[in-house]
Amino acid sequence: MRIVVTGGAGFLGRNLRLRLAELGHTNVQSIDRESPAAALASIVADADFVFHLAGVNRPDDPSEFDAGNRAYTEALCDALAATGRAVPLVLTSSTQATLDNPYGVSKRAAEAAVAQYAAATGAAVWQFRLTNVFGKWARPNYNSAVATFCHNIARGLPITINNPAAPLRLIYVDDVVDALAARVDATGAGLQDADVRPVYETTVGAVAEMLRAFAESRATGIIPRVGNGLERALYATYVSYLPTDAFAYSLRRHVDPRGVFAEMLKTTDSGQFSFFTAAPGVTRGRHYHHTKTEKFLVLHGRARFGFRNVDTNERHAIEVSGTESRVVETVPGWAHDVTNIGDEELICMLWANEIFDPAAPDTFAAPVTD
Question: Any idea which fold 253-365 has?
């Protein structure tokens, strides 16, 4: 299948072309609205599917709206009709097509052009009216407030918010390209309206607050909940705007004669991740918890985990090597320690189910052995 993407060098086009390649579509050609009409006709002459993403949304001269949206779409539809084949077409329009400003009028005219193409040829045509699309590779200081916020906050630059309560409807670029790419294998004929889900309903101020929390997480060590929904998509977008010199950052290391201890990451409701080292013969721990639990994973070296029930005095021991990938879990009410019983440095990863609170540490010194 030969696929043509107009506007393939733009924000949405770059993401779509990558997704098409991941799906195994190797014959994809990109074209932009600056290409001469003759080139447009020759490129689509043997196209099997066309994604029409090209358009103008922030020109220097408002007259460019009409040329870049209406006129270019009409030229594309004329070229497709001239092939004599009902070539499927996807148009990305805008929710502003309902408005009577120059941009909305030009997008509505583009929609009329593809509707006429669908009626005349019987080709399957899908029309997406997109709202604010955000994600990696959007151009800051252009048409995406999210891109501008991410770019500036990632560099410690100020952002401008006129009304924090202003409503904002967002769709994530990965959801958009999934919906677009799915049309390649879809069936049907004529004009069909299509949409992208989910649409995130939020405010300008809420987005800025989330992005600032992402930036501050490196200093505080506390990462917000970024595993799903809008937070997940915004976090991925924010990180994509980090300059290369910010791809890495250092942790605070606590060094004493026993070795090194460092906290890597703290979560808002799922505990924290740390690591520690110990020289041969060194023992760490020697305490118990009432509620806190921990999981230990030896990454390098050999360790003996000792346990003592502080009520019954029952004892237990577990020896673990870094070659085993075996997790040792501490149990409330059992004093525990870990001793490096090998000849090399012990390196151990640690997860605790709660963030350490110096005011209420739930950690009580207690020996494991007499």
Answer: Jelly Rolls (2.60.120)
